[in-house]
Amino acid sequence: MKKWKVALGLCCLLVGLALIINHQVDWRGYLHTWQHVPKAPVADQALPAPASNPYAGDISRYQAANADVCAWLDMPGLVSTPVVQGTDNDHYLTHDATGNYNPNGAAFLDYEEPVDTADHLVIYGHNMANGQVFSNLDRLLNQESAAAHRSFRLASLAQVWDCEIIGIYDMNLEDPAQFFSYNSWLVWGGEKDALSYLAGLAPSERVRLDTPVQATDRLVTLSTCDNAQNDARILIVAVRK
Asked: Which UniProt keywords are given for this protein, alphabetically ordered (predicted)?
């Protein structure tokens, strides 16, 4: 009888551990590898990309596989990925940059504004457990790390922007004091400008850097989930220069 109780206790312990691990780990990322477009052999490569846009070659390579690829995001040490733009903000939650089904999703630009003309670009991506897409952006929730990664680049085929981080925000979408519809602020005009946008985010501010900002500045926001909360978003907001 005693052995039976011990065995039952061990089974319950193992089941409990399995449930905890399943809750903490997003298995989707481990069961579906991210598909990449391989580089062509050196002999088959086109002329090298001009120094003014070193990302043009990679963007074109992915566009050959998926016409929705519109840009490249490069934050050294954290993110280097193609960016896609679909006809809605749902498709690329479950499809990668090659256009194939993948629960890891892709980094995708809000569908409502073109990359080269929008005043404010919002780019979404999953915070997975496997280091893919925007998984590393939660490292920026402390001042030291944000300052160390304060600069990144966003490039389309037409141009390259040097982006300087203004602040990091951790917005609880269920908290009325913090909620702000950041993804509806894509075009400046009327009461909408860069300074008003930052004011709207202020209640969820976690880190603020000394990057100067003017009302007419064009911004980019990287948006991913905060897995430590039920319904929250980590937002990295930067000036596009």
From this structure: Hydrolase
